[in-house]
Structure formats: structure tokens, C-alpha cells
Write a structure and sequence with these properties.
188 residues, alpha/beta, Rossmann fold, 6 strands, 44% helix
Length: 188
């Protein structure tokens, strides 16, 4: 049984000012270090620039990181800075980086092939946003017969009530949840 940690979209713009910013980053640092110590894969996800526009997605979010050929250099620089992974976790490192263009890290990427090649049977989820990108990637993991587990204090949402709802929905429809401390104890 191979376990992996996936850290979803820890973008500078999405983390700053969150109600749980310090705890979220601290817990992710602990988890990344523990998974590395145990020689389990650590996967990060981030934006894939220059993707084909999706009108349905763009109605919700706008063209967050689509066609860069039509963007002024100044705007492009700001876009890349805002969608950069926060340095506190990026400096620790990862085994695999998945550039994703939609919510799920499995959509149009090689993540499934990577997981199957590493015989990953469980993926522990951290990152933002618990009700969106974490949620959809976890659902896609489940569809691929990989057990998703959400780490409640290493995953975030815009506010505490939304976060509680997202965790409850995850538990009902996708899989179990654990705290950072519980995950670390289970890996020892």
C-alpha cells in the first residue's frame, strides 16, 4: 500500500488573509516533511498557463490563466505572481508537480499514470479550496480506485462555516477525514 500527499493550488493570492492561513501552512509543512521522511510521494498542483478557454468555467471565474498571448506583459507578471505557490511549502520540494487547467488535477494530466506507476492506493489531500479543486480531484481519485482522505486542518475554504460544510460533504460522498496529527501518527 503506497500513500501519497497532494497539496492542491496553494496560490499566494488564495492564501493571504485566510482565517486559517498560519495553521494551514504550518500543517502542510509538517505533512510534507513527514511524507518525505517516509519516502511517500508528495504531489503539488498549480496553474497551467496558455490553456484553451472553457466558456463554462470562465463564466464562473473569468479567464484566470488562459490565453497569455492576449495579455499585456504587466498583467501577465501579476497573474504569474498571484498564481505562484507559496514559498514556505515550495522550498521543501515535491516529487511531482501537476499543471492543471481545470478543477481536477486528473483532468488532461498524467496524474493517473503517475499514481498507477507508483502503485498509490491512498491520497491524502491538503490545499485550497476544499469545496472545489480539492473536492473534484478527490472525486476523480475515487473514480480511479484510489482512496481519498482529506486532512481537515491542512485544507481550507474561504470561511469556517464553508470549511465545515465542505468537510462534511467530503465525508458523506467521497471518503474519510483526518487531522494533521492523526495522519502523522498513522504514518509512524
Amino acid at each position: 500500500m503506497v500513500k501519497a500527499l497532494i497539496v492542491i493550488d496553494m496560490f499566494v493570492k488564495d492564501i493571504q488573509g485566510r482565517f486559517d492561513e498560519k495553521e494551514l501552512i504550518s500543517n502542510q509543512v509538517k505533512l510534507i516533511n513527514k511524507f518525505k521522511e517516509m519516502h511517500f510521494p508528495v504531489i503539488f498542483t498549480g496553474a497551467k498557463f496558455g490553456t484553451e478557454p472553457n466558456p463554462v468555467y470562465d463564466k464562473l471565474w473569468g479567464d484566470e490563466y488562459g490565453d497569455n498571448s492576449k495579455v499585456e506583459e504587466k498583467t501577465l507578471k501579476i497573474r504569474h505572481e498571484n498564481l505562484a505557490i507559496i514559498p514556505e511549502i515550495l522550498k521543501i520540494g515535491y516529487d511531482k508537480f501537476v499543471e492543471k487547467e481545470m478543477y481536477s488535477a486528473f483532468f488532461n494530466t498524467d496524474l493517473e499514470k503517475y499514481c498507477k506507476g507508483k502503485n498509490i492506493t491512498e491520497i491524502y489531500f491538503a490545499g485550497v479550496s476544499g469545496g472545489c479543486c480539492v473536492h473534484y480531484t478527490a472525486v476523480d481519485a475515487m473514480y480511479r480506485k484510489i482512496q481519498p482522505i482529506i486532512i481537515t486542518d491542512a485544507t481550507s475554504s474561504p470561511d469556517i462555516e464553508t470549511h465545515r460544510d465542505n468537510i462534511e460533504n467530503f465525508n458523506v460522498f467521497i471518503g474519510p477525514s483526518m487531522t494533521t496529527e492523526e495522519v502523522i501518527k498513522s504514518l509512524n
